[in-house]
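Project outcomes to date are best conveyed with an example. Our students and postdoctoral researchers have been running inverse folding experiments weekly, and each run begins with a structure described purely in tokens. The record below, which covers 242 residues, was selected by the lab manager from last quarter's runs and is presented without edits.
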């Protein structure tokens, strides 16, 4: 401070004004430089913060997409599992009924050979077709339940089409062909069971049973099978309002 006072006393007024202006100019330049550096630092910090937030947002989106993919895979597996369980249970039920018919029915000794052969072949076909359907559905169920929904080395849709779809169609076709044969077994049971009865009542009873069974087959083939079989066997289904 003392040096500054001596400087002011010895320095002329004009030079003093010039020096003051020079000092103020240099101070303004220094302040401007400091402000620019601070602004640059703040700008860089903001860019780094925005970049970090964007990276975290992308990681969160990737995590949500992965969770969504896992949920979709599990949902697809559950859907196919329910279909296979339903088919397997129904096939086993019909096969069990047919086996009970073969074991429990009393075949008359004087039964006509053609009727006996027809009844035996039809019942055996029903059991075999339902066993094929049940076994394929069971193995498919075990296979898809072992599918890794987290790792997903192969997408489930591709896994189903390449490994499972042919067996699924085989199981469904076996079930579709076995149902009318089961009704045909019902039509033949009346004739086999009532063969030893005397009179005409057994003929009428057997005929009524056969007519009911044939009508059931016609309704099944003309309505149920015609409406649903191709839709169930098609890989990609588009619903169209008609």
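After processing, the design step wrote out the following sequence:
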């Amino acid at each position: 401070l003392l040096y500054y006072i001596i400087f002011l006393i010895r320095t002329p007024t004009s030079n003093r004004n010039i020096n003051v202006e020079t000092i103020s100019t240099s101070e303004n330049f220094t302040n401007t430089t400091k402000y620019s550096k601070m602004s640059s630092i703040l700008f860089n910090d903001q860019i780094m913060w925005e970049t970090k937030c964007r990276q975290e947002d992308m990681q969160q989106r990737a995590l949500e997409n992965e969770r969504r993919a896992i949920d979709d895979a599990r949902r697809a597996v559950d859907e196919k599992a329910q279909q296979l369980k339903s088919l397997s249970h129904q096939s086993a039920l019909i096969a069990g009924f047919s086996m009970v018919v073969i074991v429990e029915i009393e075949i008359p000794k004087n039964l006509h050979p053609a009727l006996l052969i027809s009844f035996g072949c039809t019942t055996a076909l029903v059991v075999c077709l339902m066993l094929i359907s049940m076994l394929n559905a069971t193995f498919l169920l075990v296979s898809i339940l072992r599918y890794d929904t987290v790792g997903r080395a192969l997408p489930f849709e591709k896994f189903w089409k390449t490994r499972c779809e042919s067996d699924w169609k085989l199981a469904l076709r076996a079930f579709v062909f076995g149902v009318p044969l089961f009704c045909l077994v019902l039509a033949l049971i009346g004739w086999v069971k009532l063969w030893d009865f005397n009179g005409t009542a057994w003929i009428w009873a057997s005929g009524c049973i056969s007519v009911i069974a044939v009508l059931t087959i016609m309704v099944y083939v003309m309505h149920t099978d015609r409406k649903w079989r191709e839709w169930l066997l098609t890989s990609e289904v588009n619903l169209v309002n008609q």
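Helices lie at 2-10, 13-104, 113-145, 156-193, 201-233. The longest helix spans residues 13-104. The training component of this project remains on track.
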